[in-house]
Amino acid sequence: MASTRDVPYPLTRSSKPDVRSRRRTGRFALIAMLTALAFGAPPASAADGALASPAAPLRAPYVPKADDEVLQEVPAASNPKVSAMETLRKKLDDDPANFGIATELARAYIDFGRELGDAHYAGYAEAVIAPWFARKQPPVAALVLQAVILQYRHQFSDARRLLKEALQREPNDAQAWLTLATLEMVQGEYAAANEACARVARTGGFTLGLACSGNLRSYLGEARQATGLLALIEDKSPTQSSSFRAWVEGLLAEAHERLGNWTDAEAHYRKGLKYEPNDNFLLVAYADFLLDRNRPKEVFDLLANYTQSDTAFLRIALAQAALGSPDLQRYVWIMAARFEALTQRGSDYYGREQVRFALHLQHDPKRALDLAQRNWQAQKAPWDARVFLEAAQAANDPQSAVPVLTFLERTKLEDPIIEPLARDLRAKLGSAAGRTP
Predict the structure, then answer these.
(1) Do residues 53 and 109 make contact, with C-beta atoms less than 8 angstroms apart?
(2) What is the DSSP letter of 326?
(3) How much is the pLDDT for 46?
(4) What is the pLDDT of residues 348-373, one digit of tens each?
């Protein structure tokens, strides 16, 4: 889900996560029901693996046989982060006009939702700040929080508008500048991102500014410079939170991947996961790294306890495909049902994942290309370019890739996987032009 690596509140401290507990509720029950049906007796029509969603309604609701039956494992009440959110919730209930408590709770929800890969928490955060955001002139912090939520939902234009409004009123808000920089990087607006990173440095300090600039450099054909900048702040900021350190390690891992330094990239992924073992973005990014290195079995060990995350479940399904698993079609069916559930609730911000699903699990290059073209209108991070080129290549439609190829020429992105794809498609375009009368 993530585009470029998102850290909504890198300056806040986060506590360590722990084990999961058991609960029967909402979407988790739906996922469990889908799993039970698919792994018991999936509909015959789902066996061809070419469905965008289940072919027919579920044959019957799944009814637990006992009250203590486990449907889905969810974060435990003993989890320090869950406990902290519950404490904040009680404080806000006792003092509903306290905006300081409200913003602290909303930030906790956003961070925890990103850690789990669960968009519900963004909705919880939105509900918390709604009374202040509804005011004629919302507090600047409410504008920034709402922008972060909208960015998470890929409502980029609205998020940018709120951030600019916030910065007009408070030009020294480092968090707003960092969020804006991240948004500009997601959409490939690198000149604007560079300006925003400069403002991050001036308002948020040396460490945050280097992190922002280092991240940007990795998208501009300067991945080696990016690793140098990011190395300056790695382990150099003992006061920073574990989430911030994990973010920096993830940025370093991605920059090393741009250079084809696989050993260094993996070391940084592993180090980041030591800081934040349950961080969904890091887990999924590392899983992609393992899939690219043809190590699908390790994906199962990495993501075994994270099947509630849609992005993690997709990587598990891709690993099943890489291994030729006999259970693959069941995973495909469940993933299709998850995408359908997301669509029905209006959560249309998994474009990149939908492209990969259509291309590599449904084997439908034309649909994958259609999805990639739509996704490219919203975001232009390296992975978005990659899945577009893969779909264009598989669909044998090099002409469709021209916007992406032009973007890559302009930005000079380095990437040992994207570059051969681009060369192949350019060669096909050249051959086609040579045959034109």
Answers:
(1) no
(2) T
(3) 38
(4) 678 999 999 999 999 999 999 999 99
Q: Mean pLDDT over all residues of the chain?
A: 85
Over residues 260-266, mean pLDDT: 98
> Which two structure tokens, joined as six digits, stand for 216?
């940007």
pTM: 0.84
Torsion angle in degrees (nearest 10) through CA of 345, 346, 352, 356 = 40
In 3D space, the residue among 39, 37, 83, 40 whose CA is nearest the CA of residue 60 turns out to be 37
Whether the CB-CB separation of 124 and 109 falls below 8 Å is answered with yes
**E strand spans, 299-389:** none
Task: Give the type of residue at 112.
Answer: F
For residues 163 and 83, give the distance between their C-alpha atoms in angstroms, rounded to a whole number. 31
Q: Is 267 helix (H, G, I), strand (E, B) or coil?
A: helix
3-state DSSP assignment of residue 197: helix
Q: What is the percent of the chain with per-residue pLDDT over 90, rounded to a whole number?
A: 69
Residue with tokens 């003993």: 78
Give 191's DSSP letter: H
Tokens of 282: 């890091």
Can you tell me the distance from the alpha carbon of 108 to that of 103, in angstroms, rounded to the nearest whole number? 8
* Nearest of 213, 297, 289 to residue 253 by alpha carbon: 289
pLDDT tens for each residue of 285-318: 999 999 999 999 999 999 999 998 899 999 999 9
* Residue spans of alpha helices (H) in 9-155: 26-40, 80-94, 99-116, 120-133, 140-152
